[in-house]
Each structure stands twice: as C-alpha cells, then as structure tokens.
Write a structure and sequence with these properties.
Elements lengths: L52 E5 L5 E5 H6 L9 H7 L4 H5 L3 H15 L8 E3 L13 E5 L13 H4 L4 E6 L8 H18 L5 E6 L1 H12 L5 E6 L13 H5 L10 H9 L2 H10 L4 H17 L1 H7 L2 H19 L8 E7 L7 H11 L3 E6 L14 H7 L20 H10 L1 H7 L2 E5 L5 E3 L10 E5 L8 H12 L3 E5 L19 H5 L3 E2 L2 H9 L3 E4 L3 H5 L18 H6 L3 E8 L5 E5 L1 H4 L3 H11 L21 E4 L6 E4 L9 H4 L2 H25 L8 H11 L11
Length: 715
C-alpha cells in the first residue's frame, strides 16, 4: 500500500533477505512478484506529494530548485529568486512542513505491526521507504539497524533527506520474532556481502542505534575487508553500566504493574520538553504555532501508548533486553578488531544508557572514530526535533560515494533549510558587523553590492585574511544570498583531520565550515575545484596572516613565489582580488605569538598544538610558516566590516604565457598589488561612513526597522 499524508508509505515488493539459505547464485535481490513490505532495488523511487521539490546542483555548486507544478504551469516570478533568500523570508521551511514527526512514527509502526498478522509476521526482513525520493547518481547503500523496538522506522523523520543521497534499506524485526543476535549478525552480514559483490566500489553505511549499533559493530568485525562506514547512535555497548541491566531478572518475576512502565519509555524517547519548545521557537514559529506544535506532540505521545505496548509487549521487552545484554558483550569483546570508519552520536540526556560516557570510551577504543555530542537530547536521537542526520553527516565530511573520501566531488551543497539555521546562529554577529559589500564591474566602475562578481566559474578569489578569519561568515553568506554563488574555501587541514588527539578544538567545531563547502588546502583540491568550474576562495597568507602579530593588521604576508597563477591559467579562471577592513574596529592584539613564545610553558603548549595537525608549508621560509596558536585580543566597541572585490583578472588564453616562471610571478605580484589597493581604498573610504559606529547604526535601524539596510559612504 502506498498512501499520501499521514499514512504509511511502502510499496508491495520486498527486498527478501530472510534467514533461509540464499539461492545458488548468492543473489539476495528479490523477485518483483513477491508481495510484502518494501520497494525493491529494481523499482523507481517516487513520491506522490503535491508540489514536490526536486533539488539539483549546478556544476559550480550553485543550488537550484524546481517544483513539478512549475514545470507544468511555468515558473513564477517568485521562484526565480534565490532559494536561499526565499528560505529566510519564510516562517517555516518547506522541509519542516514536509518532514515527518513522532505521530507519523506511531501511525506507521501501527500499520506495519498490523501487516504482520496474528502469526507474528515471519522472520526479519529489509524494506525501503517509499518517501526516500530520487537519489544522486552512484549513491552509497545505507542499512538502518533498529534499536530494541525493532520496527525499523527509527529514521522516519530523515527518510526524505537521506533518500536524496543514499539507497536506504531498513531492517524490520517482527514483534513475535525470536531470532538470536548471532543470527541477526549473519542476516546483515549476508546482505552486506551480497551488495558488496554486486557493487564492490560502493561503500555501505551501517546506521544503528542502541542494539542496532552493537549489530553494526559485530558485522564490521566479521568483514574487515568490506568498505563499511558506521554511524552509531547511543550504542548499546554500555548496557552493563545502564539502569536497564538489573531489570532482566526482575521482569520475569515481578507483577506486570511494577514492570518497566511505558510512560518511562516514552519520557526517554522524547527528551527534554523545554528543549522541544525552544527548537520550535528557533525555527521562527509564533507563540501560537509553538504551543500548537507542543500540544500535537503531547497528544501523539499519549494517544499512541497502546502502539508502543504492541511494539514492546512484556515478553518481547524481556527478550530484547536479554538480546541487548548478549549483543553488548559480543561487541565489547571485539572492539579491538573494528577497522571501519565510525561516526559516534551520543546524547547527554539519555535516560536508558550512559551514552555520554560510553561515547568517550568508544572514541578512544576505535581507531577511525569521530564523535558528535547532542547534550540536550534523549535516547531516541533520530526521533527528536532539531536533529538532522544528513546535516550531521555533511558536517563531519562523512559522506562519500567511492573508496576514498573526495572533499570536492562528494560534497553536497547546503539546503536552504541548513543555510537558514546557519544564518540564525550568526544573526547577532551579522548585525554587529553590518557588512558593506562593494564590487567592480567589467568597465571598472565600483558599485555597491556584488554585481561585479562573475557568475560563471571557474573563479578564484584571492584576498587578505582578517584577524582570526572574522571576515569569512559575512562574506560567504552575503555572496550566497545575493548571487546564489557558493564559495568553496581552501582551509587549514586541522579543520578536517588530526594526527593525534590533544588540545585543539574538536573537529565538530568546524562542521559549519565543511557544510558551507570548505576543503583542505592542497594543489590537488584546487585542481579539482577549478576543473569543476567552482568559485574558490584562497588566502595566500593563510594562518600566518589570520594570526598576525601586533602592528601587522592589513599587511599581506604572502610567500615569495606564486602558488596559484599557473593553476588558474590552466583552467582559464578569473582571478578576483579583494580586500577586507574592520578588524581594528573590533579588537586589538595585546598578546601575540612573539609574546607567547617568551613564556616556556606557553611555548611548549603551542608546539604541542602544532604537532596535532599537518602543516601547509613546511618547506617554505619562517616568514609565512605559523605554529597553531591564538593571539589574545582585547575587544573594542564594534565598528563595521567593509569588503571590496576588485576587477576580475582574466587568465583564459594565457596558459602558454604563464608557463614562464617570470611571467607567472609578474601576474602574482599584480594580484598582490590589487589586493593592497583594495585594502587602502576601504581604509580611506570608511572614514567618511556616518554609520561606522554600532550606536549610529542602531539609531538608524530604530527608526527604519531592524532588518533595514544601513547606508554607508558615497562612492
């Protein structure tokens, strides 16, 4: 049955993967004539929601949207606007409106359990949700392994977004099924081996929560030569330390009314009600909409208690807890043998398992492991508002379609909803900086706004790196909003990988940069970006410029030899020099690198930081090299940020000319001179800006509206 609205959306064809011997061919792909619960791999993934949004990404990473209705009726004037700009104008995004919720989980669980029939529904099986939409080419396979509920709908709130980038199969374990943990491992293993044989170059993702996480670890141990990536949410490996463990002997002897109550299970599922309310407020909903949403959530929880009773009746709950105990012991005894890349997701308010502490233990025990912490969430992480699994995967750079992670070609641009969340988190900083954007047209005329930036790539932005990189957020956000152009920044390797654990900020601190398209700086990545006609942001001064010393503001600290000119010429890229001013209106360095290196224990600390990550220019002179550190900055009353993008410099047709080292160096020095001119222009013109001071801008916005654009100097 395939239905729209709140009804369950499954087709009638199964990926049959039962605990029976496979056919002689070893192929687990089903006969389309079988009638059970899921979409087969041979079927086309479709949805029937009216006005469905189809997303595509241009070759330069520009996000595009097209509605089916518009394809039939013509594109409206509104839809010709930048989709990111449109998203900021909405109180609630299209994604939020179409995303399923806790009520849908209960409804579809009820329908799925009913379809099992009185006999318990047979052995475990795979199904593929119909609302997973059409996928990207060469999408990896994602196998979802459920927790103790066993329904397989734990990702229901993420099916639509995951289905755009993965081929999703979910494991369903019928309520009355009593398959042992080791047999479940064999079932999943059989599927993994079959799919790996069918598509050996396609990675397979195992997403498991609690019991499912133990299952994923066990399969990874038994198949070290298969390309697996594990995403583990609140793993059940901590069962022996949980408050559930003592319940096993009690459940068999105490009266039903004293057994683990459903209300307790529900409280652990829903997390913190106050946080749920705040999530709705942060989405920009009105007080009435927030209250209505909370009432619906409470109604869903109270109305579907009986559904949960059907999912976990007394005997099934006891069986699942015993299975979790054996699964935990099995996985823990083999952690040393796990070689798969792993992403751990842990909740700070998990009332069933000590997931926060367990995450720290597993992070140390697993060799290729990253961790993301959700401090305000409960045990059933994927069923809570405010958690988007696709965004987490993007932020961790955990998505790949081949054997190795490719930061350029595996990258998926942010959706308008993701961009809106990033804007909301930086709203105060954007208001404080009130950025002024200037650009240069082809005829040399300087204009307000970004009209002078070339639309078609490849484009290489070369400029001054402000103190601590403060200029990045306003620049990248404004270019995406005004021009629908995503800047792919070349970033320091410490944002992506570490040689060892230590005192550097956690990798999760840089998730937003990766979502917005940052890649590790390297010649290979620059080649790939320019070859794909991207708009690339490169700072020749790098970390040395961003962590400059006292008195070095607005000084370009570039290496002597050209690093990017011949690469730009190879692809005919336009080079856009730019300058940024305003750092000296926000802070003053009072304790720089030279000062810190005079203190022995601080010097040792800085050296230890630099040993945790790869360096970028180890072979160059010390003038452009920089140990990782943070200068101490004394804040000032905020001023304003100013950006000036100079006239694009053409390199197309100059490849032969620029092969000569002297000619390339001459163009390199020309670009450097243009950046210095941009800096000098901004420093001079800002003196005549009547709204350079924050108080002046606040006074203007108090009479014109706080969302109004504040004027600046005349050109």
């Amino acid at each position: 049955m395939a239905a729209t609205g709140g009804c369950v959306a499954f087709s009638t064809v199964v990926r049959s993967c039962q605990l029976t011997p496979p056919p002689s061919s070893g192929n687990l792909r089903p006969n389309p004539s079988q009638r059970q619960f899921a979409v087969s791999s041979e079927s086309q993934f479709t949805t029937t929601v009216r006005g469905e949004t189809k997303r595509t990404f241009g070759e330069n990473g520009i996000f595009k949207e097209k509605h089916k209705e518009e394809a039939r009726e013509g594109v409206t004037k509104e839809r010709q606007k930048n989709p990111y700009e449109l998203e900021l104008e909405r109180n609630e995004s299209d994604e939020d409106r179409s995303r399923k919720n806790l009520k849908d989980y209960f409804e579809e669980s009820k329908d799925l359990i009913r379809s099992e029939g009185g006999g318990g529904g047979g052995p475990p099986r795979w199904f593929s949700p119909l609302d997973c939409g059409s996928r990207l080419d060469d999408s990896p396979l994602l196998l979802y392994l459920p927790g103790i509920d066993g329904v397989g709908l734990g990702l229901i709130m993420h099916h639509q977004s995951l289905g755009e980038i993965f081929d999703i199969w979910c494991l369903h374990i019928p309520v009355k099924d009593r398959t042992s943990f080791t047999d479940l491992v064999k079932l999943v293993e059989q599927t993994v081996r079959s799919e790996n044989c069918h598509s050996p170059n396609r990675p397979i993702y195992l997403v498991g929560e609690s019991l499912g996480a133990c299952l994923a670890l066990a399969v990874a141990v038994r198949n070290p030569d298969i390309d697996l990536s594990l995403i583990l949410a609140n793993p059940g490996t901590s069962f022996e330390k949980s408050q559930l463990q003592p319940l096993i002997p009690l459940l068999g002897i105490i009266p039903v009314q004293y057994q683990l109550s459903l209300s307790y299970m529900l409280s652990s599922m829903t997390g913190d009600p106050l946080r749920m309310a705040m999530d709705k407020v942060m989405k920009g909903l009105t007080l009435q909409q927030t209250a209505e949403g909370l009432l619906k959530d409470v109604a869903a929880m109270s109305s579907y208690v009986y559904v949960l009773a059907n999912i976990l009746p007394e005997d099934t709950l006891l069986w699942k807890l015993k299975m979790l105990k054996s699964a935990s012991a099995f996985a823990n005894s083999r952690l040393h043998a796990v070689k798969a890349q792993t992403l751990l997701l842990t909740s700070g308010r998990d009332q069933l398992l000590p997931s926060e502490d367990e995450g720290k233990r597993l992070h140390r025990a697993l060799p290729k492991c990253e961790i993301r912490r959700f401090n305000d969430n409960g045990h059933y992480l994927f069923l809570e508002d405010g958690v988007d699994l696709v965004t987490v995967i993007k932020g961790a750079s955990f998505y790949r379609r081949g054997k190795c992670r490719d930061y350029v070609f595996d990258y998926i641009p942010p959706t308008p909803s993701e961009f809106k969340n990033i804007c909301e988190s930086n709203r105060l900083f954007m208001r404080a900086t009130s950025p002024v954007m200037l650009s240069t047209l082809e005829d040399g005329k300087i204009v307000k706004g970004l009209a002078g930036i070339p639309s078609e790539g490849p484009v290489l932005f070369i400029g001054y790196h402000m103190l601590l990189g403060y200029e990045l957020v306003p620049m990248v956000m404004n270019i995406l909003l005004e021009r629908n152009i995503l800047m792919r920044g070349m970033a320091h390797p410490m944002m992506f990988m570490r040689k060892k654990e230590g005192n550097l900020p956690e990798l999760s601190s840089f998730d937003t940069y990766r979502i917005m398209g940052a890649v590790p700086v390297s010649g290979t990545n620059l080649y790939k970006l320019l070859s794909s006609k991207a708009h690339v942001l490169l700072y020749p001064g790098g970390l040395r410029e961003a962590c400059h010393r006292k008195g070095e503001q607005y000084k370009l600290i570039w290496p002597e030899q050209s690093e990017f000119v011949r690469m730009a010429a190879r692809f005919g890229a336009k080079i856009v020099p730019f300058g940024v001013a305003g750092e000296d209106d926000f802070g003053e360095i009072v304790f720089d690198y030279d000062d810190q290196m005079k203190i022995p224990f601080v010097k040792d600390f800085i050296k230890s930081l630099s040993e945790e990550a790869d360096t970028v220019r180890s072979g160059l002179n010390s003038e452009v090299n920089q140990d990782i550190h943070s200068p101490v900055v004394l804040p000032k009353f905020p001023g304003r940020f100013y950006y000036y993008f100079g006239k694009p410099i053409e390199t197309e047709g100059r490849m032969s000319e620029l092969r000569d080292r002297d000619n390339a160096h001459e163009l390199y020095m020309q670009v450097k001179l243009e950046v210095e001119k941009c800096l000098a222009f901004l420093q001079e013109k800002r003196e005549s800006d009547p709204y350079r001071n924050l108080l002046a801008r606040l006074a203007y916005q108090s009479t014109h509206g706080f969302d109004s654009e504040v004027p600046t100097f005349e050109l």
